[in-house]
Amino acid sequence: MKLTKRLECIASLIEENTNVIDVGCDHALLDIYLTLNNKNKCIASDINENSLQSAIKNIKKYNLSDKIEVVISDGLSGIDILNNNTIVISGMGTSTILNIIKNSDVNKINNLIIQSNNDLSKLRKEIIKYGFYIDDELVVKDKNIYYVIIKFKKGFKKINKKDYYYGPILKTKNYSDFIEYLIDKNNKIINSLPKKKIIYKIKFLKINKYLKKINKKNY
Q1: Pairing of strands 145-154, 111-116
Q2: 212 CB contacts (<8 Å, ≥6 apart)?
Q3: The domain containing residue 22 runs over which residues?
Q4: 150 has which bridge partners?
Q5: How confident is the model at residue 5 (pLDDT cuts 50, 70, 90)?
């Protein structure tokens, strides 16, 4: 089966033979792919009953009804988190994602793979507070939209405060187009700010200086 570039990127970070809980599974395409190709045991979860009906239809199409469990749930509520697990949360905002983590048995989680639509600096900072470190980070451009996918693992690694914004792993990879996109985005914010917001302008100017430094280093 064919996945979108975003879902392919998420799948590439998931280890074989792990127990996967796909929160906000939508049509369960990721779960089907992982079951067929990665030997994962998947739980497809969503709060939206219509999405789950579509998921069930797709799962039946691939004759996987006995292998993929479908659960209607608000986040991880009511789901038993098994050992050797990977939790996937994608396509949501950071506040929603953090609320899901906050209301789960976070001590049972081994791996988190997250694709948030906003505020990645806050996401990194808060997830690390729960006793995780950033194991990998990928950027993918899908249908002209950039997505950042972050893999967190249970444990600790020291992180530079600046890396909350861009990421300790991303800065080691050559994503020059993405960095240029971020710089341009920040410049638009700087130009739109009124003169009295000088502190915010300085903040974004510093971020852009850091991004340019990373880009120059990786060329």
Answers
A1: antiparallel
A2: 179, 183
A3: 5-158
A4: 114, 137
A5: very high
d(CA 121, CA 117): 12
Indicate if 121 and 206 belong to the same structural domain: no
- What are phi and psi for residue 109, nearest 5 degrees? -85, 130
Task: In the chain, count H helices and then E strands.
Answer: 8, 7
Residues 90 and 58 in one domain: yes
Torsion of CA 44, 20, 14, 145, to 10 degrees: 30
Tokens of 197: 């917001």
Q: Angle, nearest 10°, between helix axes 120-129 and 94-102?
A: 10
The residues facing 149 across adjacent strands are 138
pLDDT tens digit string along 24-50? 998 999 999 999 999 999 999 999 888
Residue 2 to residue 161: CA distance in whole angstroms: 38
Which residue type, as a one-letter code, is found at position 147? Answer: Y
Q: And the tokens for 155?
A: 């444990």
Only one residue has tokens 């979108």, namely 4
Can you read off the two tokens belonging to residue 122? Answer: 């806050």
Joined together, the tokens standing for residue 70 give 């479908």
Kindly state whether residue 166 falls inside one of the protein's structural domains: no
Question: Are 22 and 96 members of one domain?
Answer: yes
